[in-house]
Design a protein that fits this description.
With 141 residues, this protein is of the alpha/beta class. Helices cover 35% and strands 16% of the residues. It contains 5 helices and 4 strands. The protein has a 4-stranded parallel β-sheet with strand order 3-2-1-4, with helices on both faces. GO terms for molecular function: phosphoribosylamine-glycine ligase activity.
């Protein structure tokens, strides 16, 4: 009938592994008509874009950024398929901002002062930086 007949889900330690598990499951399926002709078609593009592109991480912190170092190293080595695209702090001299700047000029690194702002205004300012950088995941340090 042209509709979806079956969904296959795979599980794995990463999205790439789960995707491979799903397609292994699909390869074990077969639908045929009375004459033995194959009647099955399956998509091969599911999650491909998500597997290829790096996740965009934004960081909110007011510390030295020591906890950020393993994330930076994992991004650099490829162990974490992601990139840090923004670092925001409420402290102008926070070393975490220096760590953000060390990642290069494409990383949005910004001090956002809470002075004179309501909580909502402060949150909106931080959110604006993160959204402007295309952040998909926020890491709180």
């Amino acid at each position: 009938s042209g509709g979806r007949v079956l969904a296959v889900t795979g599980v794995g330690p990463s999205l790439k592994d789960a995707l491979a598990s799903s397609y292994r499951g699909v390869s074990k399926l077969s639908f045929v008509n009375d004459d033995g002709a194959k009647l099955m078609h399956h998509r091969t593009d599911i999650a491909k874009g998500a597997v290829r592109r790096k996740l965009k991480i934004g960081v909110l912190g007011s510390t030295r950024g020591t906890a950020l170092l393993p994330v930076m190293e994992a991004c650099e080595s490829g162990a974490l398929h992601a990139e840090i695209v923004a670092v925001v702090s409420n402290r102008s001299k926070a070393p975490i901002l220096d760590k953000g700047r060390s990642l290069g000029p494409t990383v949005a690194t910004k001090f956002v002062s809470a002075k004179g702002l309501s909580r909502e205004e402060y949150d909106a300012e931080c959110t604006s930086v993160l959204v402007g950088a295309g952040v998909e995941y926020v890491l709180l340090v």
